[in-house]
Amino acid sequence: MSKIILKPGREAMLLRFHPWIFSGAIKSVEGEPSSGETVDVISSDGRWLGRGAYSPQSQIRIRMWSFEKGEDISGLFFRKRFERAKKAREELYICVRTSAYRMVSSEADGLPGLIVDKYADYLVCQFLSAGAEYWKGEIVRQLEELFPVLGIYERSDADVRLKEGLESVKGVLSGKMPPKLLDIHEDSVKYKVDIINGHKTGFYLDQRDNRAFITEYAEKKDILNCFSYTGGFALRALKSGATHVTNIDTSEECLDLARKNAEFNRFDIDAMENITGDAFYVLRSLRDQARQFDIVVLDPPKFVTSVKQMMSGTRGYKDINLLGMKLLKPGGILFTFSCSGLLEESLFQKIVADAAVDARRDVQIIRYLGQAADHPVALNFPESRYLKGMACRVW
Ligand code: SAH
Q1: Cα(187)–Cα(320) distance, integer angstroms
Q2: pLDDT at 95
Q3: Active-site residue set
Q4: Ligand 1, closest atom to CA 210?
Q5: What is the pLDDT of residue 65?
Q6: pLDDT of residue 71
Q7: CA separation for the pair 44, 188 (Å, rounded)
C-alpha cells in the first residue's frame, strides 16, 4: 500500500479524526497510488495515523476512511458502516413518518463522498469523491445485500465530481429503473419525486423537520413560499389548513410538479398560486403591489459556494430577508434558511439582524432550525452542519 508522509505539525487535525487532508499538508508520497486507491497516512515522525482514499486532482488530496489500526478497507468495512448508518435511522423512527430519508450521509456517517438516499423501494446514490468512485462496485454489492429494494440508481451528476477529476454520470446501478415520478410521503402529505432529473437526488430531504414545523403555524394563513422547488413547504402548509400559498421559483418544471403534487393530495387547486421568476425581482414586485402575508418562507439555493463568493452571497441573503420581512403582516412569521456550509450560523443571524434594521421591523427568533436527524452532524467534521435556519416573529 502506498504511503503518504505529512509535513511536520500537519497531523493535528487527523489526531482529532478530521477526515480531510489538503495537498499542502503532504510532504511526500511513497508509491504511485491511482485515483481513489487506499493509502496509509504517516506523520512526519513516522507514526501511523490512519487510512484514506487518494485523490490526485483534488485540493482535498486524501479523505480518511479509518483511524483504526489494522482496519482493512474492503467490502466488510463498507458493510459495517452501512449497518451502523441503518441502525441509526431505524432508531430515529424516521421510517414511520416518511418513506424517503438519507441512509448514508457522507463524512457524517464515516463514508466521505458517499450519499445514499432511500426513496420508497429505491436507493439513490451519489459517489462524490475519488474514493467512493473507486469502491463503487463493492459499495453497490453491499447495499444490494443489506437493503432489499427494487433498484439502485446513481445520481453522480453533481459539480463537485469535477474537482475530483470525475465525470458526471447517472443511471441504473442495480435492479429496476425507477419510475419517472416516484411517490413518497412525509407524515400524511404525499409527494411525487423526480429521481432521474430532480435536484440533488430528487428531493430536499434535509428540510423535512422544518416542513413539519410549519404545520404548527399554517392554519388559516396566507403564505409566501419563496424558492419553492416542488412545493415542499407549500403542501405541508395546505394540509394543515393554510388558506392560500404563493410559490416562487425560477423553474417552471418544479412549479408544475408542485401543482401536480397539490392535485395528488386533492387540495383545492385555487389555494395554490405559482409565480415563475427570479425571487429577487418577484419579491420586489410583490412589495410594490403592497402584498402582505402571514408567513414567508425563504429557502434559497446555496448563495456562498466558495470563500470568494462570501460578499455577494451575504448580500443575497440580506436582500431576500429584507424583502421577506417587508412582505409580512405585523406579527407574521419568517422561516429563513441558508444551506451555505461556508456561512457560519452566527454570521447568518447577523445578516438577518441587519435586514431587520433596514426593514425597521422588530424581530424575535422563536426557533433555531437545522437539518433533519438523518443528516447528522459529526463532531469531528463540523462542516457537516450546513443547513441552518430560524423561525422569526416579525413585528
Ligand atoms: N424548499 C424546497 C427546496 C428549495 S431548493 C423544498 O422544501 O423542497 C431551492 C429552489 O430555489 C430550487 O427549486 C431552485 O430552482 C430555486 N431557485 C434558485 N435560484 C432562484 C431564484 N433566483 N429565484 C427563484 N428561485 C430560485
Answers
A1: 30
A2: 81
A3: 339
A4: 7
A5: 98
A6: 94
A7: 56
Strand, helix or coil for residue 19: coil
State residue 281's pLDDT score: 98
- What is the C-alpha separation between 272 and 166, in angstroms, rounded? 41
Gap between the Cα atoms of 387 and 107, Å rounded: 15
Q: Does the Cβ of 248 fall within 6 Å of ligand 1?
A: yes
Give the Cα separation of 382 and 61 in Å (integer). Answer: 19
Upper half-sphere CA count for residue 191 (Cβ side, 13 Å): 30
Distance (Å) from CA 278 to ligand 1 centroid? 9
229 touches ligand 1 (CB under 6 Å): yes
> Which residues of the chain are under the pLDDT cut of 70?
none
pLDDT number for residue 19: 98
Q: What distances in angstroms separate CA 210 from CA 47, 206, 234, 356, one per listed residue?
A: 45, 9, 12, 22
Contact residues for 373 (Cβ-Cβ < 8 A; gap 6+): 92, 94, 209
Nearest-atom index, ligand 1, CA of 227: 11
Cα 172 to Cα 41: distance, rounded to the nearest angstrom? 35
Q: Of the residues 197, 228, 255, which should be mutated to test ligand 1's pocket, given the most ligand atoms within 8 Å of the CB?
A: 228
Predicted local distance difference test score (pLDDT) of residue 60: 96
pLDDT (0 to 100) of residue 92: 81
Cα–Cα distance measured from residue 308 to residue 110, given in angstroms and rounded to the nearest whole number: 29
| pLDDT reported for residue 308 | 92
- For residue 251, CA distances in Å to 15, 111, 143, 256 come to 45, 33, 34, 9
Residue closest by Cα to atom 21 of ligand 1:
278
Report the SS3 class of residue 144.
helix
Q: How far is the CA of 157 from the centre of ligand 1 (A)?
A: 18
Instruction: Quote the cell numbers at residue 295.
Output: 408567513
Check if 251 has its Cβ closer than 6 Å to any atom of ligand 1.
yes
Nearest to 234, CA basis, from 209, 256, 215, 253: 215
